[in-house]
Amino acid sequence: MFFGSKRKEKNNDRLPPNQRLTEGWPVLHHGNVPYYKSLEKWDLKIFGCVQQNKELTFNELMNYPQIQVRNDIHCVTGWSKFDNVWEGVSVKALIEDMSLLPEANYVILHAEEGWTTNLPIEDFLRETSLLAHSHSGERLTPEHGFPLRAVVPHLYFWKSAKWLRGIEFAASNTPGFWERNGYHMYGDPFKEERFSWD
Ligand SMILES: Nc1nc2c(c(=O)[nH]1)N[C@H]1C(S)=C(S)[C@@H](COP(=O)(O)O)O[C@H]1N2
Ligand SMILES: [Mo]
Description:
This is Sulfite oxidase-like oxidoreductase. InterPro entries: OxRdtase_Mopterin-bd_dom, OxRdtase_Mopterin-bd_sf. It comes from Bacillus taeanensis. Residues 1-21 are annotated as: Disordered. Residues 30-178 form the Oxidoreductase molybdopterin-binding domain. The protein is of the alpha+beta class. The chain has one domain: Oxidoreductase, molybdopterin-binding domain (Sulfite Oxidase, Chain A, domain 2, Alpha-Beta Complex), CATH 3.90.420. Helices cover 16% and strands 30% of the residues. The chain has five helices and eleven strands; from the N terminus they run αβββαββαββαββββα. It has helices at 2-14, 58-62, 91-96, 121-124, 177-180; strands at 20-21, 44-48, 54-56, 66-74, 79-90, 106-111, 116-120, 130-135, 138-139, 149-151, 164-170. A hairpin with a 4-residue loop joins strand 6 (106-111) and strand 7 (116-120). The radius of gyration is 17 Å and the shape is globular. The site of molybdenum atom (MO) has 6 residues, from loops. Molybdenum atom (MO) binds next to loops.
């Protein structure tokens, strides 16, 4: 009894307001799942407020320092999933290699089919942000973002673009797909920044 209530107390710190814990892993997105037969035509474009635009092949990207992180994810629709183990390229290490212009204050992540999401550059550059290719030691499935997705765990999970194809640095904060449709420009789950009016 004592341990039970103690655990509950701990979970309450860890679970943002009005979220419930899920054991499975829901699949959620707008649009179609891309199914890649090969990654020959895949690239990641880095552009905007940088000295030089870059287009990296999947293999070139994999040469950057990789990290493994464990974190909790929180979807704005109300589910949270604890203890996700991700593996992928460290955003910080990748971006250190790009010469950003001083006005690069925001990031727009571009996914397949023109889907986008926006966030401040400091949030993207956190040590816990990564471009993940694996979850729980296995390659991402097409539904969860194969071959590469962003993971920015301290914001609601819609900021973690699946099927990432571009990273744009921008001087101003331009709303992405869900942000244009009423979602919050920042999206801190612990402050319940779900909608633009929150
Ligand atoms: N490209 C793309 N990425 C996306 C989305 C999307 O619609 N398109 N939806 C977001 C939302 S709302 C959530 S909750 C998570 C869901 O990721 P999952 O399906 O791996 O759980 O992906 C995010 N990334
Ligand atoms: Mo979501």
